[in-house]
Write a structure and sequence with these properties.
The chain contains 13 helices and 22 strands. It has 439 residues and is an alpha/beta fold. Among the domains are: 125 residues, Rossmann fold (3-Layer(aba) Sandwich), CATH 3.40.50.12160; 124 residues, Transcription Regulator spoIIAA (2-Layer Sandwich), CATH 3.30.750.210; 55 residues, OB fold (Dihydrolipoamide Acetyltransferase, E2P). The structure holds iron/sulfur cluster.
Length: 439
Amino acid sequence: MRKVAFYTLGCKLNFSETSTISRMFEEKGYKKVEFTDTPDIFIINTCSVTENADKKCRKIVREARKISPDAYITIIGCYAQLKPKEISEIPGVDAVLGAAEKFRLLELLDGFVRTEETKVLASEIEGATTFNNAFSINDRTRTFLKIQDGCDYSCTFCTIPLARGNSRSDTITNIIQSAEEIAATGVKEIVLTGVNTGDFGIRNGKREDKFIDLIRELDNVQGIDRIRISSIEPNLLHDEVIEFVAQSKRFVPHFHIPLQSGSDKILKMMRRRYLSDLYVSRVEKIRSVMPHCCIGVDVIVGFPGETDEDFLETYRFLNELDISYLHVFTYSERANTPAPDLAEPVPMKVRHERSRMLRTLSEKKRRKFYEENLNKTEIVLFEEDIENGMMHGFTNNYIRVAAKYDPVLINELKKVKLISINTSGYVEVEDAEQVVLTH
Ligand code: SF4
């Protein structure tokens, strides 16, 4: 039995796709093994957003060669689509597959026999028009289910549309079927994943469904306890979606909404499809129907032309907004994007300083959100990671909790009372009925 190992860089979408590709190998009789378990084949799923993507890719290939000198090494993913030639020149790479080819690798690389020449099978991104269904089954607790791929927006900093192509989606029927399959494995939580998740519903270039139709259907899938929406653009987070989540049986009160900048000048330069006012109205709407909803925000610092005043506008905007945490990204120039030509670059040192300031703000926001939730009763899904006799999990509204390890609780939903924030930033809990869980 030939052995195959996988390595994934980047986002949840990449993880769900690697997981699906690994199941395709297993169905064909290959054995999935750990990276260090002398595999015959390595599949490396790359990301173009990861900083130093090329360095990382080279390093992983080097390591793979050391572990199995004769293995067949294949590179797939966003970086493979963007720079196939560059990757094919990395010593030790046997094949590079683009976005339109990666799900057909078993057929295209039939037998995985090494040859003198590196195979490069990467069509232009316009060729990536089909939707390939994917979901991850890596742990027992949570699954990333891909519902949408690609993006039709053209934010000036982003390479994703170049790496993943136009917006396209699965059908509602297929997604429900995947959700039922996931439920049958015993997984309790599904995270709906896509490049532009809220844009769900486009097939063959035409809008055939809406995101709200999908979530209404998913809410009725028996056996799944929680469904989380991974991230949704503010202009697509319509009132009907917020109101639906507020009364839903399975969708949890947690939204992750990219903002990117609190300055309208920068938002326009980024070619985002909203201004700061719309973002405020989304947050206010959520708070009006779900006061304890967790709201996460993506923000980019150091975009070309971002002055100290623009940055402070973002800082003040976020400081005043009732949100729960930030994901801070330091802007970095990407090839073939318009952003670097729009204005003078911000010095690296300044970008890092701004990033540090927002990370500190994020910690303050998270702590405030946790404090507001203390003494409340919440439902936690306990996970498998055990550390120093403690186990962890997330509440419906995405508060990280810690409790004394109890094997019976793994992958179980439990009603708990949130008691206090410990020094590691977790909230310690008590059983809602009887005190058993704190140290
Ligand atoms: S919405 Fe903008 S940032 Fe997000 S994937 Fe599309 S182009 Fe990139």
